[in-house]
């Protein structure tokens, strides 16, 4: 799964972009299955567990004087072997600053 966060300022310029991958346990970065214990132990378990809440915090730098920022968040299932992307969740939020 891939979490993609993008932020644009009030002029439409991209001011922040970050992507985080959650690798399915037992798959390597090429999408090949690794079943042997000696192979799996090389990978950190970065999966998203069913029904468990995973919170991510990302600090978005905003220039002084910026009035609004549009933030887009997308979580999608991305299977490297099948070249398949399925959107799971998306959120768009406009943040307004008052000085």
Calculate Rg over CA atoms. 17 Å
- What would you call the shape? elongated
Helix and strand succession?
EEHEE
How many angstroms separate the termini?
38 Å
Give a brief outline of the structure.
The chain has 99 residues and is mainly beta. The protein has one domain (2-96). It has one helix spanning 37-40, and strands spanning 2-9, 14-21, 68-79, 84-96.
Any overview of this molecule?
The chain has one helix at 37-40; strands spanning 2-9, 14-21, 68-79, 84-96. The longest helix has 4 residues, at 37-40. The protein has one domain (2-96). The chain is elongated and about 55 Å long. The chain has 99 residues and is mainly β. 4% of the residues lie in helices and 41% in strands.
Which secondary structure elements does this structure contain, and how are they paired or packed?
Blueprint: E1 2-9, E2 14-21, H1 37-40, E3 68-79, E4 84-96
Antiparallel strand pairs: 1-2, 1-3, 3-4
Index terms:
99 residues, mainly beta, four-stranded antiparallel sheet, 4 strands, 4% helix
